[in-house]
Amino acid sequence: MSSPKLEKRFLAGTELRADSNNFSISGTAASYGVTSRNLGGFVEQIQRGAFARSLREKADVRCLFNHNCDQILGRTAASTLTLTDSDIGLKFRCMLSRDIQVHQNVYTSIARGDVSDMSFAFLVAPNGDVWQGEATDERGTKLPLRTLVDVDLQDISPVVFAAYPQTSVAARALPDYSARGWNAEATFRRLTAQAITSVELKDEERRVRAAQLVRSIEAEKEEEQELENACERACRAAGLDFCSVDDEHIYAGDANEPDENCCYRFEYEQDADGEIVLDIDSRTKTDHELLHSERGRRILWLRSLKRKAGRNG
Known about the structure:
With about 325 residues, the protein is an alpha+beta fold. It has six helices and 16 strands.
């Protein structure tokens, strides 16, 4: 099983308000039972109770502005952010401080109505999503339905623009359904073809849209490869075996540990030159094992070859 990817969902027109009595913001961070727009070949809904485990385990959730870690508004561990399950969704209240400029700016923007949308970031727990049935997207197209039933909530965030993730990012969550008669790649090609060959477009517009799509896919693949290469260099310099990376963490193995199959999580930053700076002190043991990912199995195989070479030498 590969490391979970950080996912974000953006909710336009959700409940968000500013309370002048105690200088706070409150509203609904996520709504239950609402079918999303097309997320890149599938649609999604959140089942009531999907956040129950996170709330029960008192996860340290942040409230950020625009998902920016430099603009933190509150957190559950400091009791400045309160999360509550309701029948319609996940409710929140964040107590702001008049002594912090960004808090004043966000409060004023929400009170004026300039900021009215919410978003939340999460990791899907093992067996935390169910792919079953179909639902109709905003254009009336039937698509596979993903239901979130158990997630690790990371942060909630008032946002300026509520736009759904681009197809190439959201599609990473698609499982391999080829064995069940549903081909995700074929569905993606069909939807792409619909966008490019729409009767509403002229030939030149179709060519331009197709070229833009190709360029965006190639650019993202190149960016991802550059990030992985930088992560691999940073891990190698620290004596680690790079396994995977998400928006906040790098996952790597350590051959010097007694349990060499164990995977560790590290926080990281990317400098102006694109190089990765590992925070070694943030090292945390995870429940994931190298054996459960393709790259991890390759790491274990290479280690075994090195041991054999050492014995033969």
